[in-house]
C-alpha cells in the first residue's frame, strides 16, 4: 500500500460515497487486480458489473489510444465519427424495436433521459416503478429507486407522480415464481384501480432482472404480462438494462433473453468496459417526436468513451456466445454448494449474474454470513460484492471472458469461506 493512502483518502474524499475496500489498486489485467503491496486479487466485483471484458482488454485499449491521439472533446458543437460508430454498434446488438440512440455519462442520467423522453412524448406524467428497483442516485433516479429506503431518506419531497408496485421476490415471500408473479400482478391491477388510471401513465420503468435489489430475475411470465398491460393502455415500457446489459445475462440484453420488446432501453455500466458512458435507445418514430433541444449534455457521448464502447461491443461478439456454458457450470457448482452449506438459502440469476442468498433459520437474512464470506474471500485473494436490502446476497459477477479455472477458483474460495463461517 502506498504511504498513508487510507489517511490521505479519509482527509479529503467525502465519506458519503462508500467504498468496499481500503485496498489500493495499482494495476489490472484480465480478471486480476494488483494491489500496492504486490498482492493479486481475482476481481469478481468487475467494478460493479462494468468490466465485462476484464481489465484493459487489448482491442478496447487500442481504440482508446487511437482516439487519444486525435481529439478528446468537441461534444455538443461538432460531429464526430466515434459517436455514430458507437450508436451503429449498439444498433447491431439491441432488440429490433430499438434503432436510434442518445448518449449520457452515467446510468442515473440515462434513466432520467428515458423518463423525460417518455413524459414529453406521451404527454402523460405517471411513472410506475417496481419495489426493490435501483435506478441511480440523482434526484429523479432516486425517486424511482426503492431497493433501500436509506437511499431516499432525507431527500424528500421526491419527484412526483411515481407509483411503486411489487416486483416478484419468490424466495423472500416464500412463494413459487408463479405465485409471486400472480401476487405482484394483482397488486399492480389494484394500483391501476385505486391510485392512477392507466391513461395517465407515461411508462413502466423496470429492470428485467433486479440488480441492487437482490438479484431477482423478472421471469418470462411477469415480463410478458407487463408488456401486455403496456400494449393495452399505450404505456411505454422502459427497460433499465444498466446492470443486465452487454452479455451479462447470457444474451446481449435481458429483453432478448425474455424476448420482451422494450420501447425504451437504458444502458450503462459495461457499455464501454469502464469508461464513463451511458445510452438510451428507442425507435426512430419515438425519438423523432422529442423536440430538438428538449434535453442535452456537455460530456455525454465523449469521443474516447464512444471509441471504447464501439470496441467493447466488437470484442464482446467473441465472448457473449460462451456465457451460457460458463453460466451452466457456475450454477452446477453453486447448486452443489447449496446442498452442502446450510447458510445458502437460494441461488438464482441468469447468465453470469448470479445471486447467492445467505440466510439463517426460517430464511432470515444473514448479513453477518455475507460479511464473513467477503472478508475470508478478500484474504484468500477474491473480490466479491453484495446486494439486497439486507445485504445478505453474494452478487457473483465475474468478467464474461473469465477462464473456467478462474471461475472455479472463485467458487472454491466461496465454498471454503462458507465452511469456515459454518464451523
Ligand atoms: C439497474 C441500474 N440502473 C441505474 C443505475 C445507476 O447507474 P450509475 O451508478 O452509473 O448512475 C444502476 C447502478 O448500479 C443500476 O444497477
What do these coordinates show?
This protein has 2 domains: 5-56 and 321-422, Alpha-Beta Complex (Aspartate Aminotransferase, domain 1); 59-316, Type I PLP-dependent aspartate aminotransferase-like (Major domain) (Aspartate Aminotransferase, domain 2, 3-Layer(aba) Sandwich), CATH 3.40.640.10. The chain has helices spanning 5-12, 46-49, 58-68, 81-93, 107-122, 139-144, 170-173, 177-194, 220-233, 254-257, 284-287, 303-316, 320-340, 367-379, 404-422; strands at residues 25-29, 32-35, 40-43, 100-104, 126-130, 162-165, 201-206, 209-210, 216-217, 236-240, 264-267, 278-282, 344-350, 353-358, 382-383, 385-387, 393-396. It is α/β, with parallel strands linked by helices. The strands form 4 sheets. A 7-stranded mixed β-sheet has the order 4-12-11-10-7-5-6, with helices on both faces. The chain has a 4-stranded mixed β-sheet with strand order 1-2-3-15. The chain starts with a helix and ends with a helix. The mean pLDDT is 97. The protein binds pyridoxal-5'-phosphate (PLP). The site of pyridoxal-5'-phosphate (PLP) has 15 residues, from helix 5.
Amino acid at each position: 500500500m502506498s504511504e498513508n493512502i487510507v489517511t490521505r483518502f479519509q482527509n479529503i474524499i467525502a465519506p458519503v460515497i462508500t467504498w468496499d475496500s481500503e485496498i489500493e489498486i495499482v494495476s489490472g489485467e484480465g480478471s486480476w487486480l494488483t494491489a500496492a503491496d504486490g498482492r493479486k486479487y481475482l476481481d469478481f466485483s468487475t467494478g460493479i458489473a462494468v468490466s465485462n471484458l476484464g481489465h484493459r482488454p487489448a482491442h478496447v485499449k487500442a481504440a482508446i489510444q487511437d482516439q487519444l491521439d486525435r481529439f478528446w472533446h468537441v461534444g455538443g458543437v461538432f460531429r464526430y465519427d466515434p459517436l455514430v460508430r458507437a450508436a451503429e454498434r449498439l444498433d447491431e446488438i439491441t432488440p429490433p424495436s430499438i434503432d436510434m440512440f442518445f448518449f449520457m455519462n452515467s446510468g442515473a442520467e440515462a434513466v432520467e433521459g428515458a423518463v423525460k423522453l417518455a413524459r414529453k412524448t406521451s404527454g402523460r406524467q405517471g411513472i410506475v416503478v417496481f419495489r426493490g428497483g435501483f435506478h441511480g442516485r440523482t434526484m429523479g433516479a432516486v425517486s424511482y429507486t426503492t431497493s433501500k429506503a436509506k437511499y431516499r431518506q432525507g431527500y424528500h419531497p421526491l419527484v412526483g407522480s411515481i407509483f411503486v408496485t411489487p416486483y416478484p421476490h419468490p424466495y423472500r415471500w416464500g412463494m413459487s415464481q408463479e405465485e409471486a408473479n400472480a401476487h405482484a400482478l394483482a397488486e399492480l391491477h389494484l394500483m391501476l384501480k385505486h391510485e392512477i388510471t392507466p391513461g395517465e401513465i407515461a411508462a413502466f420503468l423496470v429492470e428485467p432482472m433486479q440488480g441492487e435489489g437482490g438479484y431477482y430475475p423478472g421471469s418470462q411470465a411477469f415480463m410478458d404480462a407487463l408488456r401486455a398491460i403496456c400494449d393495452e393502455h399505450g404505456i411505454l415500457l422502459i427497460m433499465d438494462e444498466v446492470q443486465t446489459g452487454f452479455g451479462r445475462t447470457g444474451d446481449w440484453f435481458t429483453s432478448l433473453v425474455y424476448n420482451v420488446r422494450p420501447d425504451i432501453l437504458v444502458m450503462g455500466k459495461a457499455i464501454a468496459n469502464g469508461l464513463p458512458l451511458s445510452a438510451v435507445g428507442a425507435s426512430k418514430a419515438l425519438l423523432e417526436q422529442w423536440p430538438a433541444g428538449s434535453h442535452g449534455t456537455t460530456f455525454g457521448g465523449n469521443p474516447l468513451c464512444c471509441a471504447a464502447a464501439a470496441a467493447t461491443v466488437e470484442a464482446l461478439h467473441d465472448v457473449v456466445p460462451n456465457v451460457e456454458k460458463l453460466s451452466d457450470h457456475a450454477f452446477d457448482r453453486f447448486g452443489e454448494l447449496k446442498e452442502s452449506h446450510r447458510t445458502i438459502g437460494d441461488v438464482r440469476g441468469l447468465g453470469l449474474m448470479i445471486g447467492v442468498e445467505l440466510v439463517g433459520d426460517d430464511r432470515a437474512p444473514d448479513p453477518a454470513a455475507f460479511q464473513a464470506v467477503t472478508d475470508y474471500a478478500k484474504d484468500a485473494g477474491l473480490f466479491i460484492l453484495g446486494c439486497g436490502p439486507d445485504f445478505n446476497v453474494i452478487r457473483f459477477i465475474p468478467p464474461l471472458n473469465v477462464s473456467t479455472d478462474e471461475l472455479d477458483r472463485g467458487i472454491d474460495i466461496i465454498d471454503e469461506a462458507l465452511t469456515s463461517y459454518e464451523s
